[in-house]
Amino acid sequence: MKTAILTVCAVLVLSALSFAQSPTLTPLPNTILVGADGKFETAPDTALIQFNISAQADSAKDAYDQAAKQAEATRQVLRANGIDPKSAEIGFFSVNPQYDWKNPKHKVIGYQVTTSVSLKLKDFSKIGPVTQQLADASVSDSQSLSYTLDSTDEAKSKAVADAYRRARASAQSLATASGRVLGELSYASVDTFENNRVVVPMQRRATPMAMAAPVPAPTEEFSPHNVTVTAHVNAMFVLK
């Protein structure tokens, strides 16, 4: 009976933190079930720039042609910075009529063509020139910049290791307090998450200024925020 009480108490003490994310398990005699969070912070390896190309005109063809010119301006900016335009991805493309809602007949007064573009950069030194040149070319009203981690395997492994260390330390404390010896791991489950830092918008359309001196891009000389990978581990240990 003493062993059964120990098992139930260990589960109850940690249930508020660990059971919120743990699968449904039936506590076993002579075991301790614990949960813990771990994390690992690292510098990002990828910058993601996102923006929309949008044009509006009286006819669908004119709107399409304007959007095509903006898309070509985007390709020229990319080529000028040594970036293959094929590395930019289109998320969606739409042609929508614009209505006069004040008119009872809802007459079509124009058309809008919109497409979303996302660009991943490994070379962070290109962020400033690309965003500035896109603004100068009046390609988009706004841009967003976020930093992420493409290669996450190592970061996830370190976050899991940190979470397991914390879980085992909690189990060891409970076992020692109860006068038992902590045995081997009999069960474990893992969840990992990545937290990205996003800045929206990063830069609005540039306004021409006469005799304006060049100024650094908004991102110049600043360090990107670290990416934090977190993990939650639920672990069941045998008591000896």
Features:
240 residues, alpha+beta, Alpha-Beta Plaits, 2 domains, 5-stranded antiparallel sheet, 3-stranded antiparallel sheet, 4 helices, 38% strand, elongated, disordered N terminus
Helix/strand layout:
Blueprint: H1 2-18, E1 31-42, E2 46-57, H2 60-80, E3 88-99, E4 108-121, H3 127-136, E5 142-148, H4 153-177, E6 182-195, E7 197-204, E8 227-239
Antiparallel strand pairs: 1-8, 2-4, 2-5, 3-4, 5-7, 6-8
Secondary-structure element string: HEEHEEHEHEEE
Provide the gyration radius in Å: 28 Å
Distance between the termini: 15 Å
Shape: elongated
Low-confidence stretches: 1-22, 199-213
What count of domains describes the coordinates? 2
What can be said about the biggest beta sheet?
5 strands, antiparallel
Helix content: 25-40%
In short:
By secondary structure, this protein is of the alpha+beta class. The protein has helices spanning 2-18, 60-80, 127-136, 153-177; strands at 31-42, 46-57, 88-99, 108-121, 142-148, 182-195, 197-204, 227-239. Helix content is 30%, strand content 38%.
Describe this protein's structure:
This protein has 240 residues and is of the alpha+beta class. It folds into two domains: 2-27 and 152-196 and 228-239, no CATH class; 46-151 and 204-218, Alpha-Beta Plaits (2-Layer Sandwich). Helix content is 30%, strand content 38%. The chain is built from four helices and eight strands; from the N terminus they run H-E-E-H-E-E-H-E-H-E-E-E. It has helices spanning 2-18, 60-80, 127-136, 153-177, and strands at residues 31-42, 46-57, 88-99, 108-121, 142-148, 182-195, 197-204, 227-239. The strands form two sheets. It has a five-stranded antiparallel beta sheet with strand order 3-4-2-5-7. The radius of gyration is 28 Å and the shape is elongated. It starts with a helix and ends with a strand. Residues 1-22 and 199-213 have low confidence and may be disordered.
